[in-house]
Amino acid sequence: MLLILRSLILAVMLLLSFVFGGLFCLIRPRHRDNVHMFAKIFSFAAPVLGIKVIVRKPEVKTEEPCVFLANHQNNFDMFTHTAAVPKGTVSLGKKSLAWVPFFGQIYWLSGNILIDRKNRSRAFDTMAQTAKKIKEKCLSIWIFPEGTRSRGKGLLPFKSGAFHTAIEAGVSMVPVLASNQGHIKLNRWNNGVVIIEMMDPIETKGLAKSQVKELSSRIHTMMSARLTQLNLEATALMAK
Questions:
Q1: How many separate helices (H) and strands (E) can be counted in the chain?
Q2: Beta bridge partners of 178
Q3: What's the CA gap between 152 and 75, in Å, rounded?
Q4: Bridge partners, 55 (sequence order)
Q5: Per-residue pLDDT for 74 more than 70?
Q6: Percent of all residues in the chain with a pLDDT value above 90, rounded to a whole number
Q7: What is d(CA 37, CA 194) in angstroms, rounded to the nearest whole number?
Q8: Residue 127: its pLDDT value, please?
């Protein structure tokens, strides 16, 4: 019964957000704050799903654009990670999303960037254009560097695109971690705690493209270690 009720409420919430959000995007297509607006709306669904989301951000805030590196676990990212998406931020998604009826068109109208991962040449062109947009429009980019869902199997290997983009644009990289979400079930009343932590910025100015592999490995190690700590903390909070 709870599964059916939650599914219906979630469906209605998403439908209303797409309808009214879509109309808003038609008024101001590809505006730099459209994605933030949708993110806030989606994050409101977390309590409906029985999830308590705790968001932590660095004490020292910067207005400078950056590349956010978020871990990608499952579809619940849409309701947890979104609580941390700041203004002036757009995401990078696969080009095939454009063919998803209604959602794909709104995704593009929101200002998000589509990339053709199957075409290496076009993918590099898109990343170069993304770096240009970061500098010219003062945009931050939200990227899932794993490129696919981890399904709770820890942090998967990173693809290099996000790191090339950050170095090309000369902006910091900000790791964003969500603690384990594998326990979340729609038919469970209390789905516990998910901690979203935005780590301190990592500077890329002065780095060369030849240092992408080292930078990626260093950040992966940092994020993986911190994710283990967050998982333990979230588990302890749920046990109380």
A1: 8, 7
A2: 196
A3: 12
A4: 196
A5: yes
A6: 67
A7: 21
A8: 79
